[in-house]
Amino acid sequence: MKILISQHVPSNLAPYEVLQNQCGAELDFHPFFLIEPLSAKEFRAEHINLPDYTAIVFSSRHAIDAYFKLCEEMRFKVPETMKYFCSTEAVAMYLQKHIVYRKRKIFYGTGTPASIAALVTAKHKGEKFLITTTEGSNNTPITTLFSAAKLDYTVGVLVKAVSQDLHDLDLASYDLAVMCNPADVVSLQDNFPDFQQGTLKFISFGKAVVRSLEEAGYEIALKAPTPEATSISKAVELYLKSRQ
């Protein structure tokens, strides 16, 4: 079975080698889109004044790079008093690329919007928050929590997904495609506006991509993650075993 996975080649290939050896799967990794920072001109269209904010919420490394790039382009010197609220410890640690980590007020959650909101204790409620995001993202999970806590916040788009050129892919040659992001579906339609699913089966990895696939009229053979399919490799393995 020939399988297309809409991501870069992972650093740990071991689980996929098992699929190849035990299930006879032929795997191709090919990212469908890239994340790029907004230009200062694009960001200004949002009418957000960076000096107005005393706290910032980051959920990705891309957003961190984009923020400091914009600050430089717009000649805004980030004050040492800025508070940083990050989705995970890994995202928080990435701040070291741009600031002296130990001298700043940095907080991080466990990867969920609720864990970020829980970081905003009483002593932070007076801050003015900039919630950074990617163009087209669903920010309702975190904005609902911030609104319920009566926090002063603005959502700012800092990065965008840019479709890759996929014309070198022969989609008809694949039996299965794993889609991991709504931007994958956008890129698929950008590159192949007349694409028909036919016998190609889709695995969706992540809740957000399910809606995008279904709205595009595509059938999903397996929706992950699940307790049994906690990773892309596990989802593919589960699908292959169900076919045996």
Report on this structure:
The protein has 244 residues and is an alpha/beta fold. It has 2 domains: 2-32 and 164-243, Rossmann fold (3-Layer(aba) Sandwich); 36-161, Rossmann fold (3-Layer(aba) Sandwich), CATH 3.40.50.10090. The chain is 33% helix and 23% strand. It has 9 helices and 11 strands. The strands form 2 sheets. A 6-stranded mixed beta sheet has the order 3-8-7-4-5-6, sandwiched between helices. Strand 9, helix 7 and strand 10 form a beta-alpha-beta unit. The chain is elongated.
What keywords describe this structure?
single chain; 244 residues; alpha/beta; Rossmann fold; 2 domains; five-stranded parallel β-sheet; 33% helix; elongated
Chart the SSEs and their pairings.
Layout: E1 2-5, H1 14-23, E2 26-29, E3 33-37, H2 40-44, E4 55-58, H3 61-73, E5 83-86, H4 89-94, E6 105-108, H5 113-119, E7 128-134, H6 140-148, E8 152-163, E9 176-179, H7 182-191, E10 201-205, H8 207-215, E11 222-224, H9 232-243
Parallel strand pairs: 1-2, 1-9, 4-5, 4-7, 5-6, 7-8, 9-10, 10-11
Antiparallel strand pairs: 3-8
Helix pairs in contact: 1-9, 5-6, 7-8
CATH topology of the largest domain: Rossmann fold
Average pLDDT number: 95
Largest β-sheet summary? 6 strands, mixed
**SSE string, helices as H and strands as E:** EHEEHEHEHEHEHEEHEHEH
CATH architecture of the largest domain: 3-Layer(aba) Sandwich
Number of structurally distinct domains: 2
| Derived structural class | alpha/beta
Oligomer classification: single chain
How are the strands of the largest sheet arranged? 3-8-7-4-5-6
- The rounded distance between the terminal residues' Cα atoms is 12 Å
Number of helices: 9
Q: Assess the beta-strand content as a share of residues.
A: 15-25%
Shape label: elongated
CATH class of the largest domain: Alpha Beta
Q: Low-confidence parts, pLDDT < 50 over ≥5 residues? A: none
Helix content class: 25-40%
Say how many strands there are: 11
CA-atom Rg in angstroms: 20 Å
